[in-house]
Amino acid sequence: MPPLDEFGLIRVWTEGRQSDSFLTAAGVTVGIGDDAAVVSASAGMEWVLAVDTMVEEIHFKPETMDDADIGFKALAANVSDIAAMGGMPKHALVSVSVPARWDAKRMERLYEGLYACADKYGIAIIGGDTTSAPQHLVVAVTVVGCVESGRAIRRSGAKPGQIVFLTGPTGLSAGGLHGMLGQPGKAGKRVAPSPPKRLIDAHRRPQPSVKAGRILLEGGLATSLNDVSDGLASEAWEIAEASGVKLALRETDLPISGELAGYAGLCGIAALDWVLYGGEDYVLLGTADPGAEVALREKFREASLPLFIIGSVEEGPPGVELALASGKSKPLLKRGYNHFAKG
């Protein structure tokens, strides 16, 4: 059989993955196979759009991600951005730049992961682009979602006197990454002990907080919101700067998983560093009026979702500080993952 061209490969990777009835229900008029996709819009809603790019050796390595995990995470990162606005993800465009050593079977597995994430969150994959790449795989995903007109939750709504909340523990992904990068050293021993499965799964297959975002929007419970992609401290700074306030977090109220704490101890690392600066957890960080706290806790309990009140919003120059268990406070640096950091 002759080698497939670009369009033949696209058919292999995408054909039959999603039923015609699902695509029609998702508003897809023209899907994969034409010059552009066409989807129907609904009244009273606004589109929410997000794009993320994953680059081999920057965002993933063979020792940290299976091929299907790469596809899943590439889509999940975008879904999380939609969730952080209180939106509902609907459609996705996927572009891949493929080096020669990534054969068709590997790309099939990558698309299996993409569609696994799409199916989990009800997303129709409707098109994209495919090119060759000289050395490393690049996966760029654009997600289109929708949100009720005028109701998207932004980073800029925090006000003094409000509470700061988190919709799940952080640091798990960073712990998993640390362990998976613990390659055999010169003496044949691992630099880091093997991490618990929960930490590995948190890094490879993160679960965006779409349900939590919808609860916050539908109940009018959040005044600002951000997803934790680059680290808790970094995302707190983004809310503080966008809102012109100070966020005061409390160490004793930060959720630290027992598995994370135990693994950090084995590695000789302070779990708090992963919690504050790890990133790629995709839980939501937000603020709310103190009078909404009871309703907030009740709604999340009814949905069997975690919720943690971790601090407060204060007046002052934009910044973030941490009240330590010792009773002292310290400013938190605007530190997290930075693609353009030197050194």
TrEMBL record:
Mg(2+) 1 binds at residues 52, 129. Mg(2+) 5 binds at residue 230. PANTHER family: THIAMINE-MONOPHOSPHATE KINASE. It is an enzyme of class 2 (transferase). The gene is thiL. Substrate binds at residues 59, 280, 337. This is Thiamine-monophosphate kinase. Belongs to the thiamine-monophosphate kinase family. Keywords: ATP-binding, Kinase, Magnesium, Metal-binding, Nucleotide-binding, Thiamine biosynthesis, Transferase. Mg(2+) 3 binds at residues 35, 81, 227. It catalyses: thiamine phosphate + ATP = thiamine diphosphate + ADP. ATP binds at residues 111, 128-129, 155, 229. GO terms for molecular function: thiamine-phosphate kinase activity. Mg(2+) 4 binds at residues 35, 81.
